[in-house]
Design brief:
alpha/beta; 4-stranded mixed β-sheet; 21 helices; globular
């Protein structure tokens, strides 16, 4: 719902955040997988496509089917209506969860029953490409690369070729209760200092809480100091950087935070954390955009949201997921499908998605639009997204979660040496990659 050594994309990632978690292996984001009335953008989607869309036209008699999540259907209904008005191509919408769409297309595509355009969490792209399910983004490649952030283009590409049309992305940031924390802390050292004055385990009160056993949320303690999952921009399964010297340096900062949160990793889950934060018994929470609506309802004006604090003096680098459109390789109407995918990811379309659903754009102009920049919550997530790295999209990423999510509790709960614990995790990942690669 990463990566020259994968980490270098952080500086380039000026992107964004969707309400639905993208990572198929991301337990934290998937636990909250998801997203009002708005004035119609009369030419949503058309602005950025005019120079290129004239190169292709819809096939005679073209009619499209698109798959969309229930949560984001309102956006697709409006965009589909505008697309039909512009190109005279009818669009049928079918509700399918994004995390299920690649699998469903593998079953329905060859028989001609699949949607012409699907939504793909970017870490599922490798699976789609390996099965020859999606067409390259060829006609609109240069336009797509020019208009969107570098990291979103990385997420929409596989083995150096652009397949997807980025539409939104997500990461996590620091929620805080303004009645307890007057100003967002700049560093994890600041978080620790505050927590020493607030945390009281006997009263179930903690300065900060996050899912300490989940790699998704703890990637900041690995990547901020130079660690990574896979090398070569997240594509080299044989170069694993979770146990590198740089990663271990960051994990030392992770260990220090046990003083702020002196409980077992298994005693933290989204429901517990949500309840404690809403009641004021947790002052700060590291979480994604899927919690924003509930937290705003619970805390109102007391809710603050800021980029992650620095780790060991370095800008915090978080994991991110990107949602992209893909065009079905079996589509009878590939021209119309490509036009739709481009139309539905333009600046205006992404601003509409942001307004209706709450997503953060990948389109660079949309990110600078007052609608995004003037929203204190969305802009905070967008700011963190600038220093995020997309999860690797190679199939072997599926082999990372279990070993890493076993090592982190060993470090947190049992005081295991971070180097030894991560060495074991990396060996397990290598064994899986070389023997039973993720499907």
């Amino acid at each position: 719902m990463k990566m020259k050594k994968f980490v270098t994309l952080a500086a380039a990632f000026t992107m964004a955040v969707s309400i639905t978690a993208c990572g198929s292996g991301n337990n934290g984001a998937n636990s909250a997988q998801t997203s009002a009335p708005t004035e119609s953008a009369s030419n949503s989607g058309g602005t950025n496509t005019e120079s290129v869309s004239s190169q292709i036209t819809p096939e005679d008699g073209a009619a499209l089917t698109v798959w969309e999540s229930k949560e984001e259907r309102a956006f697709t209904e409006q965009i589909a209506k505008e697309f039909t008005q512009k190109y005279n191509v009818p669009v049928k919408i079918e509700e399918v969860a994004p995390s299920d769409q690649v699998t469903k297309l593998s079953q329905d595509g060859p028989s001609g029953l699949g949607a012409d355009v699907i939504v793909i969490p970017h870490d599922n792209l490798g699976k789609a490409v390996a099965a020859s399910l999606v067409l390259p983004n060829d006609v609109f490649a240069e336009e797509t690369k020019k208009n969107n952030t570098e990291a979103s283009i990385t997420g929409a590409s596989f083995e150096g070729e652009l397949y997807g049309y980025p539409r939104s992305a997500e990461t996590y940031a620091l929620y805080y209760n303004k009645s307890l924390v007057k100003e967002a802390p700049k560093s994890f050292d600041d978080v620790l200092a505050f927590s020493k004055t607030f945390t009281d385990k006997s009263k179930n009160k903690y300065g900060i809480m996050w899912e300490v056993g989940n790699l998704y949320f703890n990637y900041m303690f690995i990547a901020s100091t130079g660690g990574y999952v896979f090398g070569d921009s997240g594509t080299n399964k044989d170069d694993i950087g979770l146990n590198s010297d740089q990663a271990i340096e960051g994990l030392k900062a992770f260990v220090k935070m046990k003083e702020a949160l002196p409980i077992k990793s298994g005693d933290i889950n989204p429901d517990i954390k949500r309840s404690l934060f809403n009641s004021g018994d947790v002052a700060m929470d590291i979480n994604g955009p899927w919690e924003l609506a509930g937290y705003k309802q619970a805390l109102g004006d007391k809710l603050g949201l800021a980029p992650l604090p620095t780790v060991d003096g370095k800008t915090a680098v978080s994991f991110s997921g990107i949602k992209i459109y893909g065009v079905n390789a079996y589509s009878q109407y590939p021209n119309a499908a490509k036009l739709y995918a481009e139309f539905a990811t333009s600046k205006d379309a992404q601003l509409l998605l942001n307004k209706l659903i709450g997503s953060i754009p990948t389109n660079k102009e949309a990110l600078e639009d007052p609608q995004v920049k003037n929203d204190p919550y969305v802009s905070a997530l967008a700011e963190q997204a600038k220093n995020s790295q997309p999860m690797p999209s190679i199939p072997e990423m599926g082999n990372v979660w279990s070993p890493a999510n076993a090592a982190l509790p060993e470090i947190w709960d049992k005081n295991a040496d971070p180097k030894a614990a991560m060495d074991r995790a990396v060996q397990q990942i290598k064994d899986l990659n070389n023997g039973a690669a993720a499907q």
